[in-house]
Automatic annotation (TrEMBL):
InterPro entries in the record: Cyt_P450 (IPR001128), Cyt_P450_CYP2_fam (IPR020469), Cyt_P450_E_grp-I (IPR002401), Cyt_P450_sf (IPR036396), Cytochrome_P450_fam2 (IPR050182)
PANTHER family on file: CYTOCHROME P450 2F1, CYTOCHROME P450 508A4-RELATED
Record's protein name: Cytochrome P450 family 2 subfamily F member 1
Gene, per the UniProt record: CYP2F1
An example molecular function term from Gene Ontology annotations: oxidoreductase activity, acting on paired donors, with incorporation or reduction of molecular oxygen, reduced flavin or flavoprotein as one donor, and incorporation of one atom of oxygen
UniProt organism field: Macaca nemestrina (Pig-tailed macaque)
SUPFAM superfamilies tied to this protein: Cytochrome P450
UniProt keyword annotation of rRNA-binding present: no
Membrane keyword on record: yes
Keywords: Endoplasmic reticulum, Heme, Iron, Membrane, Metal-binding, Microsome, Monooxygenase, Oxidoreductase, Signal
Membrane topology recorded in Swiss-Prot or TrEMBL: Peripheral membrane protein
Length: 466
């Protein structure tokens, strides 16, 4: 071997040593976790239960910050109030990236730029919410006949976000509204099932496998077409001086910034952002209300006490308003408690660090594509260290719950959701009592499935006029 070959060989050896040292140093700083198998990662540890239970169990073994391999993807998992708060609130800036979520991302291609929008105009929609809540009550007034509230609630709640986005509400039997609800409901169910979870782990593989997950993208496409149709109508009648709704505001901004090559305001962003708001604004609140109905039927004394407070503060001759809330601490606490125990997005949406981040003595590197962070909101909502007493048959505390999402990347619809939950519950309980079909103690509050969402078990109830 001549001296040049020897030098090249030595150089290569040195390079390999350097890479090995760097990668093991990187690993040393990563939070601990189970040893992964090639390709499968730690899937064998996760196979027997649902993902949430498995990840929670692993946190008991590896601590509140650990690393797990979902197939080939390396993921950092945070659990418990303290760790999640330190990441999302105390180091909110670093943890504010959005992690990969293939069931969404393969459709949106990252075009849902919610964070560009400072959408703080929900308050002016109070009247619309009350109208919808009252219409839902009327629609559900089936002379005390039992009915499943899912569809009535989705239709009504979805109509609120539709009027914010599209400028007008739909009639309850309008085919466009019914289609939106059917598609979103179907997708939320699939995403909350094992198929949705599996897709998030092996998207490229699952693209080739038949199954219900294939419907997710057909459904998304149909929603997108529906939105595109409405945007087209808006363009034809746009008056930038008097925007009628969210789409008009967005189109106006797009026109203002059309010369700016860095602008995020363009058609794809509009379609995806509208889609994400429609999705977020439809299923979440309806699902929380169904959890609330079940809890209030299981604990009739709590329901009666909320009604007493409504009678005292609002009376029966006018509808409740947001101003009443401050004078209704018990009702307010019930809603907080429902949100906590319903825990409807139990594993949060995935986050990502926007730069290499030191966290609790570990280093969480910013590596595009492969790593993301799961914050187990479920373990926050059920953390024994901060847990407030639950609803019981006789009482409920007014202590605030450790509500999340929190930090820099917030739920864009949070204040709208809070308004909706308060106005719907009070408007319905003002006029009706919720009656279960069987004995209250037989009501099962455990969720039917937990993936993206915690879905309550299907049920029927009667609305009995008070
Ligand atoms: C009870 C009702 C709701 C709950 C529990 C809820 C929960 C959440 C959670 C956990 C996140 C992820 C936050 C994070 O990444 O840390 C989120 C994000 C989001 N939510 Fe909500 N949400 C609710 C209602 C709504 C409503 C009514 C809308 C629409 C008007 C909405 C629109 C969104 C959007 C667009 C995002 C993505 C924000 C981003 O990526 O920057 N949500 N929500």
């Amino acid at each position: 071997m001549d001296s040049i070959s020897t030098a090249i060989l030595l150089l290569l050896l040195a390079l390999v040593c350097l890479l090995l040292t760097l990668s093991s140093r990187d690993k040393r700083k990563l939070p601990p976790g189970p040893r992964p198998l090639p390709l499968l990662g730690n899937l064998l540890l996760l196979r027997s239960q649902n993902m949430l239970t498995s990840l929670t169990q692993l946190s008991k073994e590896y601590g509140s910050v650990y690393t797990v391999h979902l197939g080939p993807r390396r993921v950092v998992v945070l659990s418990g109030y303290q760790a999640v708060k330190e990441a999302l609130v105390d180091q909110g800036e670093e943890f504010s990236g959005r992690g990969d979520y293939p069931v969404f991302f393969n459709f949106t291609k990252g075009n849902g730029k919610h964070r560009l929008l400072q959408w703080d105009r929900w308050k002016k929609h109070e009247e619309r919410i009350l109208e919808e809540a009252a219409s839902a009550g009327r629609a559900a007034k089936t002379e005390g006949e039992p009915f499943d509230p899912t569809f009535v609630l989705s239709r009504s709640v979805s109509n609120i976000i539709c009027s914010v986005l599209f400028g007008s509400r739909f009639d309850y039997d309008d085919e466009r509204l019914l289609t939106v609800i059917r598609l979103i409901n179907d997708n939320f169910q699939i995403m909350s099932s094992p198929w949705g979870e599996l897709y998030n782990i092996f998207p490229s593989l699952l693209d080739w496998v038949p199954g219900p997950h294939q419907r997710i993208f057909q459904n998304f496409k149909r929603l997108r077409d529906l939105i595109a149709h409405s945007v087209h109508d808006h363009q034809a009648s746009l008056d930038p001086r008097s925007p009628r709704d969210f789409i008009d505001c967005f189109l106006t901004k797009t026109a203002e910034e059309k010369e700016d090559p860095l602008s995020h305001f363009h058609m794809d962003t509009l379609l995806m952002t509208t889609h994400n708001l429609l999705f977020g604004g439809t299923e979440t609140v309806g699902t929380t209300l169904r959890h609330a109905f079940l809890a209030l039927m299981k604990y009739p004394k709590v329901q009666a006490r909320v009604q007493e407070e409504i009678d005292l503060v609002v009376g029966r001759t006018r509808l409740p308003t947001l101003e009443d809330r401050a004078a209704m601490p018990y009702t307010d606490a019930v809603i907080h408690e429902v949100q906590r125990f319903a825990d409807i997005i139990p594993m949060n949406l995935p986050h990502r660090v926007i730069r290499d981040t030191a966290f609790r003595g570990f280093l969480i590197p910013k590596v595009p594509g492969h790593r993301f962070i799961i914050t187990l909101l479920n373990t926050v909502h059920y953390d024994p260290a901060v847990l407030t007493p639950r609803i019981t048959s006789s009482y409920l505390t007014t202590a605030p719950h450790p509500a999340t999402p929190a930090g820099r990347r917030l739920c864009l619809g949070e204040s709208l959701a809070r308004m909706e939950l308060f106005l719907y519950l009070t408007a319905i309980l003002q006029s009706f009592s919720l009656q279960p079909l069987g004995a209250p103690e037989d009501i099962d509050l455990t969720p039917l499935s937990s993936g993206l969402g915690n879905l309550p078990r299907p049920f029927q109830l009667c609305l009995c006029p008070r």
